Every structure is written in C-alpha cells, then in structure tokens.
Amino acid sequence: MPLTNDGNTPQHPREAAQLSVYRPSETTSAWRVTEPDAPGLFALISDGQGLTIPPAPETDDLTIAIFDEAIEETLGSIEVDGREGLNRWYLQNVGHMPDKEPDGPRPIIELINDVACHLMLRFYEADQDAVRAGQPQPAG
C-alpha cells in the first residue's frame, strides 16, 4: 500500500505518480517531486536541516529546494513551518488558502506536492522568459 496521509487513507493517485523517496546517500533522504509542465526541473523536500524526510510534515519545518537536472546547484529554495507555512505560502503566491476550500483541508502530502509544483513552474517560467528576452523578435 502506498504512503498514507493519516495512516488510514491511501495516498491520492496523483501524489503516488509524482512524489517519490530520494536517497542521495545512506544517511540522507528527501521526497522528490517533478512537474510535467516544468521539464528538466525537480524539487526535493526535506526537514528544516535538509537531511531527511520530515517525520511530522504537518508541523515540522520543511525545506523545498528546486533543482535543474542539468546542473548541480540549487536554483532556489523556501523554508516553511509545516501545514501552516505551506498554506501561508500558497495564499501569498497563488491567491487562496487550500485548507479553506469547501471540501476541507488537503492531505498534507498533496499540499506539499502542490507547493513544490508551483515553485517549479515559477522557476521554469522565469527561465523561459529570460530565454525569450535574449532572442531576436520577429519583424512585424
């Protein structure tokens, strides 16, 4: 059975397809997320120290770091304080708070996935804008 959000509910199928365990060494681990609309980018989600998958993501400090598969350096990262910080980031950057939706709070894994995907899309779009800005414009 896939990872569950509350110990009883199976993980949403979209999460299972995008969120995976990443182990760069024997002593470190993170969740790895990809976004089909941001090809070449991936996000790693770990505890506040960047060493392991957070044991209590509802309340633990989380680091979401964005990477490009072609380079080894972090493109950028955010640190949030669990569910509260994820909702705050979403409200400030997307315009609404997921936990206030009519169907109730999102499962924490889905909320983490959504924030990571929005971050990747922002980096990807900024990169595409920079590429377009450097290219000659067609004559009008």
What does this entry look like structurally?
The protein is of the alpha+beta class and 140 residues long. The protein has one domain. Helices cover 31% and strands 23% of the residues. The protein contains 3 helices and 5 strands; from the N terminus they run αβββββαα. It has helices at 13-18, 82-93, 108-133; strands at 19-22, 30-34, 41-47, 61-68, 74-81. A 5-stranded antiparallel sheet has the order 1-2-3-4-5. A hairpin with a 7-residue loop joins strand 1 and strand 2 (30-34). Helix 2 (82-93) packs parallel to helix 3. The model is unreliable at 1-17 (pLDDT under 50).
Walk me through the topology.
Elements: H1 13-18, E1 19-22, E2 30-34, E3 41-47, E4 61-68, E5 74-81, H2 82-93, H3 108-133
Antiparallel strand pairs: 1-2, 2-3, 3-4, 4-5
Characteristic key phrases:
140 residues; alpha+beta; five-stranded antiparallel sheet; 3 helices; 5 strands; 23% strand; disordered N terminus
